[in-house]
Every structure is written in C-alpha cells, then in structure tokens.
Amino acid sequence: MIRKGNLILRRAVKADIPKALKWQANEEMVYLTGVPRLSLQEDLERELSQPFPNRLIFIIQIKDTAIGYLALSNIRWKDRSGQFGIIVGEKDYWNKLYGANVYVIFLDYAFNTLNMNKIYGIVPENNQRHIRLIEKGGGKKEGILKEHIFKDGRYYDVYMYGFLQRDYLEGKKESQKGIRISWLWRKTNTKLRGLTKE
Fold first, then answer.
1. Domains contained in the chain, number
2. What is the pTM of this model?
C-alpha cells in the first residue's frame, strides 16, 4: 500500500474486479486515457495470484472510497519496462487533480520500489488535458501512431509517451534542491516528501 494523506494506492484484490470492470465499461473514459483494457474476470483472478505477473493493478482510494484504478501492463521484468494507464472512474472525483497526484506517487513507486527503467503510455491526440499532465510531469513524446483510432467519424493519431528512471531521479534531485523544473514537480514536491509506504 502507498499512502499520501487521504490518497491511497493499493494492490487490487479479487473483490475489486467487478468495480474495475464497471469503470472500464465507460468507452469514452477508456478511449481518452489510453489505458489498456482489463481481461475477463476469470483471467484477472488468475493474474492476481501470480508472483511475477505481466500486469499490476492498483486501486485508487480517497480514504475508504475506491475511485478508480491504475494498471501497469505489458511488464517485461527483464527489460524493466511496462505500460501504464489511469482511470478515475467515479465522476464525483473528476477534475480535482487526483490524477496528477496519482502520477507523482506512482512514478516514485515504479522507479524507486519496482526499479523500473522505463514506463510508457499512450494517449489520443484530442485528449489535450491528459497530454499536458504527462508532459508537465516529465513524460517525453517518443512516437506517433498515425490515424490509429477511428471515433466520431474520423481517424485520430495516438501519441506514445515515456518516462525514464534516470530522468525521474534527476528531476527529483533537482526539485529537492529548489531548482525550478516541471510544473508537476513544483506542485507535488512537498507531498512526495511525506510519502509513506506500508
């Protein structure tokens, strides 16, 4: 479990699967976030029991209320890489910066605890809010999948963004020195210092 104030990231358990599947049933949310789709319930139950799964699912909680999930998918443990995506499924918690705080907490966990070298994600070109969040958090655009998604009568490009461990650690080091860097680091630096893990 990773906790910062009222915000909690915890590993999913079997009892969480129905709610996670309900959240991903929101086609618009899945499209806008680019989060990889979860499997069928029986496949997820099998994954949760594996010691080194190729996907880790975390439930996002505010106090005792589950509001969404974060998935680190397509994990290649040898290469120390994986694809991440976030869904805040409860509408009452949209547009309240929870996604930004989850990014910061998870990046710290991915690079310092899991020792990942790289995590990456995809986002459609018309989700400018998500793109700004990723870029301000230090994500670098690594490629474009041209006309990759068809929606509302037209094709959209999909952007691929990556975070590298060395860039993250350097950014954190510079942030702690008080050097002016990314917006996301400036907004959340003090929160990271109070991060506790259980």
1. 1
2. 0.75
